[in-house]
Amino acid sequence: MKAMVLAAAVATGLAGTAGADPVLGVWQTQVDDGAYAHVNMDKCGEAICGVIARTFRSGGEYDSPNKGKRIVWDMEPKGGGTYGGGKIWQPSTDKVYRSKMELKGDRLGVSGCVAVFCKEQTWARVK
C-alpha cells in the first residue's frame, strides 16, 4: 500500500514537470553597454515572460534600477523550440523590439526588430 501511494506521488510530480516549457528558468544575457543580466523566464498565462532577476558589470553583481523589470513579454510557443509574437525591452537604449526566440539546448537565440533595425543576442542557461 505504501509503495502504491509513493508511486502515485512520484507519477503526479513527474506529470507536473513533464508539461513544463523548456525555456522556463534563468538565462544570462550577453553583455550590452558594459552590463549583463540574469533573466527569469516564466509562464504568464499561455505566453512566456522574462523579468530581470540579477544584474552584473565587470566588477561583479550590482544593484541596477532595472532589477525586477519585465524584459520579455507575450512570447508565444510556436513549437520545435521556437517562440514568437512577443516583445523585448533593451534597457541600454530603452527601446522595445518585436521579438522572437529559438531554443537550442542551453542556448536561447533572441532577436528583435524596430522598423528595419534588428538586433540579436544569444543567452546562456544559468545552471
From TrEMBL:
It comes from Salinihabitans flavidus. The lineage of its organism: Bacteria, Pseudomonadati, Pseudomonadota, Alphaproteobacteria, Rhodobacterales. Residues 25-125 form the DUF2147 domain. This is Uncharacterized conserved protein, DUF2147 family. The keyword Nucleotide-binding does not apply. Gene3D superfamilies: 2.40.128.520. Pfam families: DUF2147 (PF09917). Transmembrane segments: none annotated. InterPro entries: DUF2147 (IPR019223). The keyword Signal applies. Residues 1-20 form the signal peptide. Keywords: Signal.
